[in-house]
Specification:
about 280 residues; about 25% strand
Length: about 280
């Protein structure tokens, strides 16, 4: 009787395992179809051939990268489905694939090293622009970014701008595509003048391995100017409780210490300090 019980229990466990594997395979198939469909539709709307491969990869979310002379977009199937289910729209998957395609098209993956806030915001701008062409509403285009935190899908890079600035960059791209934000030189000049009057720039920042330049204004906001000259907040200055730092710069969930010589430092989990960049004070007008 005991043997029969073990056989029944084993059979149930085995069948349950098969069912779980079948569900996993079905989910992977759905994610594979959705990711490839999204990439194909983005390229269809910009009229370019697909010269990169869409592959499943052991990454937290989705990443654009090169290997040798070949280009790839690697994705985590579970991330794609969780994001789609959380946002309740396929547009969320389209958005993250468009973002990674934007990295490739902008040449961000040509140079080795990690991405940076400027590159991320450029890719977000492209995502918003192309999703409008594809028929997404502004809310649908923003759906991925507005749901990343709920599924812990944000921290994929060291230098990542705040979600709010990413949404602003994506919105700017969507509005540019919709023709709602035309480049009128006199209006742009006035907007720039008004901004610089109200938000005085105090420091210039540059991070190692990042060609972009960032600025700190008098409101303690770390900003980056988009391709349209729009100021996007990517981080902020905060007081430091750590010894040896005058203050800290925080971006998303990462913090960097600034010493009295203007050096910017990052610290590993083991307490090892690595020089991450340099700041310089701008002369007063």
């Amino acid at each position: 009787m005991k043997n029969l019980a073990w056989i029944v229990l084993f059979s149930f466990s085995f069948l349950n395992c098969i069912a779980q594997n079948q569900n996993l395979s079905a989910n992977e198939y759905e994610a594979d179809q959705l990711a490839k469909e999204a990439a194909a539709m983005v390229l269809y709307h910009i009229g370019l051939p697909q010269n990169f491969s869409i592959v499943q990869k052991d990454v937290p979310n989705v990443v654009a990268y090169t290997k040798g002379s070949k280009r790839y977009i690697g994705y985590n199937p579970n991330f794609i489905l969780r994001l789609r289910n959380q946002a309740q729209t396929d547009w969320s998957a389209y958005s993250v694939l468009a973002h990674e395609i934007g990295h490739h098209l902008a040449g961000h993956t040509v140079k080795p090293g990690k991405t940076n806030p400027g590159y991320e915001l450029e890719a977000d701008h492209f995502s918003g622009y192309i999703l409008h062409l594809m028929g997404a509403t502004l809310e649908e285009a923003q759906s991925a970014l507005r749901n990343l935190r709920q599924i812990d899908g944000v921290a994929d890079t060291i230098l990542h701008p705040m979600i709010e600035s990413r949404i602003q960059a994506l919105t700017e791209g969507w509005m540019q595509s919709a023709g709602l934000r035309k480049l009128k030189m006199n209006e742009r000049h006035q907007a720039r003048t008004d901004y610089l009057t109200q938000h005085k720039i105090i420091y210039r920042f540059q991070f190692k391995g990042d060609e972009n330049v960032y600025y700190l204004n008098k409101e303690d906001q770390l900003i980056w100017f988009s391709s349209l000259g729009s100021p996007l907040v990517v981080g902020k200055k905060e007081a430091s409780e750590a010894k040896g730092y005058l203050w800290m710069i925080t971006m998303q969930d990462e913090s960097y210490g600034v010493d009295k010589r203007g050096n910017i430092w990052a610290e590993t989990n083991l307490g090892l300090k690595l020089k991450a960049g340099k700041l310089s004070e701008l002369a007063s007008n």
